[in-house]
Amino acid sequence: MKETVTEILFPKEAIGRRVRELAGQISRDYEGREPLIVGILNGAFIFMADLIRALNVPCRVDFVRLSSYGAGSVSSGEILIGKDLEMPILGCDVLIVEDIVDTGLTLSRLVEILRKRQPASLKVCALLDKQERRRVPFTADYVGFFIPDRFVVGYGLDYNEKFRFLPDVCVLETSSEREDI
Ligand code: IMP
After folding, report:
1. Relative to the CA of 103, which ligand 1 atom is closest?
2. pLDDT tens digit sequence for 121-139
């Protein structure tokens, strides 16, 4: 499989501006409180690091790692927690941070799981949202950019664990052509 980065969708400067705007909005909404920011590994780590450093409210951080049950690249909807939170969230203001909402299956299931632990509030912030790909209804509370149905990498997002390090969000095209030809 040959993978080619074909286009920069959001350059790092535009991402930086939007992350600061989101942080401003979140800081106003959580004024006087100390939210627990929950990052979904691995994709959210760069976005979350930038976001929390632009907040004007104190926060704590924790992480979850999720996996979908079953093989294949198509999400089955059965989400398992691979690495759970280290902290109890009972009575906490929890803000989940995710790289991208696609079918909505991952976040709707995670929200369902975490709600049972009775946080004081539970919201979701996603850098990117591919709304037209939804298989279940899901609306994030904060969204960086709505994007069309294209596969993107960079700024933490990967393809087979590659391309996370790219500073911009880029479009990735794959073709069945062999790389070594
Ligand atoms: P959902 O359950 O379909 O909403 O899955 C969301 C997850 O799919 C994200 O956390 C990403 O890991 C992955 N994903 C969906 N679209 C993309 C993309 O364009 N680039 C990289 N990862 C993606």
Report:
1. 3
2. 999 999 999 999 999 999 9
